[in-house]
Design a protein that fits this description.
single chain, 346 residues, alpha/beta, TIM Barrel, eight-stranded parallel beta barrel, 10 strands, globular, NADP, NAD(P)_OxRdtase_dom_sf, NADP-dependent oxidoreductase domain-containing protein, NADP_OxRdtase_dom
Amino acid sequence: MESDSMEYRYLGRSGLKVSVFSFGNMTSGWSDEAERWNFECIDKCIRSGVNFFDTAEYYGLGVAETILGKNFKQGGWDRDDIIVSTKLNPYGFGVQGLSRKRVRQAINNSLSRLQLDYVDVLFMHRFDPETPLKETIRIFNEIIDNDKAFYWGTSVFTPQQISECYTICEKHGWIPPIVEQCEYNMFERENIERSLVPIFNQYGLGATVWSPLAGGLLSGKYNDGNLHPGRYDTDLFGGRLREKFEKVIGGRKEAAIRTFQGLKAIADEIGCTQAQLALAWVIKNPDVSTAIVGASSIKQLEDSLGCIEVSKKLSPEILARIEDALGNRPAPSMNWRNFTPNSPRR
């Protein structure tokens, strides 16, 4: 059920409307102990108008899907009001590949764990270089024909790989993908804002984006330029955060601190948290269908939900100040129609 306090966007050129803020249990669904507070987060989301929930067979090697399924069963929410996506990984569960045999069994296993008859969106969770793309697309279409999924999408595919998907579908009369799931935040911009733009324009592809807080780097916790001890030292995502930290801050600590301080000053001025500013900036991009956010507490989730109102405060002037603080706006693609030998190259 839609809420007046939530914004909704169509997922690509489909008729499926998703909340611009969505919940993913990649980090919260790896242990049975998480089941209780994961349910509290989902309940809060639904009461706030969030209708899109994302998971994957790879998260916890099935545990995340199992917890999400138990949560949905416990809540008893109307299935028609909930949009659920899961992803099939070419390297999960010790069985490699997105072959016809593997995908057919994998979707049945996922639905069993989720306790659902169907998922709304089924993703290819990374490109499989060892299985012909035509074979995987064909079985994905069969899954849709059998009402085990309604739509399909790609995740972390290159523009060339996505274009190949459309070419294959057009040739064989198959249903094409409607969405790409990729990373997008203030530090990871090139893919969404430059590389995928022709795909968005040509095919009307939607985008469900992950890591809108850059693994927590944009939360305000690391404004001093230091990676503090905490759960990232021990959990499965510690290495990922440290890698991102080194990419963003390593070798340019003083510049990174200035960026963080600039973002904090803007957040303080418009009366929001730094995390809310970062999330609001992500959903301000019209090519973003929904931003997937996880949470480790209700307080953290409530803070994230507040980004809906914050996005309305991001005037062109505020957005320009954010760009000044970031200093990393991707250069636009070259418009060769307007190019002359004396034109400045950008």
